[in-house]
Amino acid sequence: MKVDRRSGRKSGQRPTGMTRRGVAEDGAAFGTPVLPGTIDALAQAVGRDERGSRKRVIPTEGSEEKMDLGSGVRLNIFSNERQEKDAPRLETWEKLQQRELRLLATPPPRNAYEEMILWTEQGKLWTFPINNEAGLDEEAKVPFTDHVFLEDLIEDFPRTGPVRHFMELVLVGLSKNPYISVQRKREHIDWFRQYFREKHEVLRLAGALPGEGPTPPPLTAPGDEGGAQSTAAHN
Q1: Signal sequence: where (predicted)?
Q2: What whole-number distance in Å separates Cα of residue 157 and Cα of residue 219?
Q3: Nearest-CA neighbor of 231 among 220, 37, 222?
Q4: 43 with 49: CB under 8 angstroms?
Q5: 171 near 193, Cβ under 8 Å?
Q6: Pairing with 73, which of 13, 83, 98, 203 sits 20 to 30 Å away (CA)?
């Protein structure tokens, strides 16, 4: 290998610290001109632009000015007072929070026995001894006869005729219905009583009230002795 003793470097070696960009910027480093249209020419143009921009941006004293945003005259457009408004109650969130607190205070059942005990206390399981009427405490106070024998509730209705026949069928249906209370059955009969009172004139003209005169007395509820006696005497 041929060594250039004057420069202290090997032949063909680049100068120390010289990069490809430096070569592109100064083609005279190797004694070869930069051809236009090549990547070296483009790098040389970019380098000149960067050097020019660095020269233009020269920091000067007093160019940075601090600004105090809190100074100056206030316009009093916004007030610093907080206006507290009544927020609407979120019942769903309150219930969820109470449920969370209840779960934290009451640990869940650890086994199946504790789970069955909890369900029994909540009314989800039958209590022993098994009773089909469990939970019907109010119905236990009402005798069975009040559910079945309801004839005394239609004593103020006509003794004969289609109205009487209709009410007897109503009593048969109510006496065989185990799913409603005695109070509901009485309310059903009272509703029919009020209905026939309102339609009294129509029923009289249609002949549904046998023995009724031109001005018949109205049907009366149980307890109205005067009206009941007049109706019974008329019938």
Answers
A1: none
A2: 7
A3: 220
A4: no
A5: no
A6: 83
Please give the distance of CA 8 from its chain centroid, rounded to a whole number: 87
Cβ–Cβ < 8 Å for 195, 145: no
In the structure encoding, which two tokens stand for residue 100, read together?
């969370």
Tokens 């909540």 belong to 122
Q: Is-contact 189 173, C-beta < 8 A?
A: no
pLDDT tens for 152-192 read 888 888 888 899 999 999 999 999 998 888 999 999 999 99
Whether residue 156 contacts residue 190, with contact meaning beta carbons closer than 8 Å, is answered with no
Domain ranges in the chain? 18-49, 145-234
CA angle, 78 as apex, 75 and 82 as ends, to 5°? 150
In this structure, are residues 130 and 124 in contact, taking their beta carbons and an 8 Å threshold?
no
Residues 41-75 pLDDT 10s: 777 777 776 666 665 555 556 567 777 777 777 77
Please state whether the predicted TM-score (pTM) of the whole model is above 0.70.
no
Secondary structure in 3-state letters for 123-153:
CCCCCCCCCCCCCCHHHHCCCCHHHHCCHHH
Helix (H) or strand (E) holding 166: helix 162-175
- Which residues are CB-contacts of 155 (< 8 A; sequence separation ≥ 6)? 222, 228
Give just the sign of the alpha carbon dihedral 9, 13, 19, 24: positive
pLDDT at 38 over 90: no
For β-strands 9-10 and 3-4, DSSP reports them as: antiparallel
Amino acid at 154: I
- 160: Cβ contacts below 8 Å, ≥ 6 apart: 210, 235
